[in-house]
């Protein structure tokens, strides 16, 4: 998700620049140090900053490969979070970023549109963001039977554990293809009992909808991603609402209304690190249960590090509570954890384990995610039928690049047509109101 959001934020910045020339002034900036400037020149010249290479692409299929993934592709850093070790991909992405900046500058000098700059497929994987979204839910088969708990509090505990475990299940370095407006994806998670249906319902801002049908519950969500880009990092905010309706006697309904923010550092220089921050909120409307989980709650600022009395916790640390007092969700201070209204307390590290009331509800490697498989009976608009994606699967990068740019051009033309249609409809409505007013008076 992080890599997708990073590149999407860059592409969105380019489009916003066309609509608003002052957009760059709204972005936070900071001067680079002499050492950083030197490294930037080194990257720009095409020299390798790191010489370590992870040569094998990976998809989770079994326990052996799963453990290999966590051992070889990243390190868990107590200060920075998840540290990527695929230096080959990082180097490629950084070179592409400098190339794009150069190309944009050259186009501006020649009077050409910067919208004609397209990301090269060398940093892509043969998958769209809709398919990547389906992978977020890959832990569902492992927790489905646990969701059948009749005790509402125990059911909520299991759902909390699944929510935290899912945060790491979509980790990848390569960028997926952006789905066009109206593109769909159909598949299933592990087995046909977990049917997945996705659709891209907005281009800017990007919004992806997902529906998961099972014999035990129905899950739906709208994922809206907004990113703020800084000189060497990006902050990604995922908003929208996730709704779960269980097929039990009470028809229990959950709503996830707030998701934690994703922070990605080292875009150009330094370690490529990812961490979660802020709050996750879950509401059980049926049984009046409420959950608040805080990620990296003891993170210290500059002055807190110098003068603060409290010690910072690990960057992947989280803690939270379950309560029947809805008002307790508004309290973001430490006092909330000492409230008499707190029913259950949980904590852990989102990369490794979840402990609720002293019991381990999830542990990395104990519960296994399932592979997301494509549906053989898909719509013509399905992601798997994209020509550029198929070309990349066949290792034909030249054809993939050509078809990708064709799709992007069609999408831009469609966007302009929609804008013109909207303006025409608005003008027609205005004229109708004026005519109605003149007839009446």
Oligomer: single chain
Broad structural category: alpha+beta
The dominant shape is globular
Element-level helix/strand string: HHHEEHEHHHEEEEEEEEEEEHEEEEEHH
Q: What level of helicity do the residues show?
A: 25-40%
Low-confidence sequence ranges: 17-30, 46-61, 300-308
Report the sheet-strand fraction: 25-35%
As a whole number of angstroms, the C-alpha radius of gyration is 24 Å
Strand order of the largest sheet: 8-9-12-13-11-10
How many helix segments?
10
Q: How many E strands?
A: 19
Mean pLDDT: 78
Distance between the termini: 58 Å
For the largest beta-sheet, the strand count, sense and barrel status come to: 6 strands, antiparallel, barrel
Please characterize this protein's 3D structure.
By secondary structure, the protein is α+β, with helices and mostly antiparallel strands. Helix content is 33%, strand content 27%. It has 10 helices and 19 strands. It has helices spanning 2-19, 34-44, 63-72, 87-109, 129-135, 140-143, 152-165, 302-307, 387-393, 397-440, and strands spanning 74-77, 81-84, 124-128, 175-177, 184-189, 195-202, 207-213, 217-229, 233-239, 242-246, 253-258, 261-265, 273-284, 289-295, 317-323, 342-349, 353-356, 359-363, 372-374. It has a 6-stranded antiparallel beta barrel. A two-stranded parallel sheet has the order 3-4. Helix 9 (387-393) packs antiparallel against helix 10 (397-440). The longest helix has 44 residues, at 397-440. The N and C termini lie far apart (58 Å).
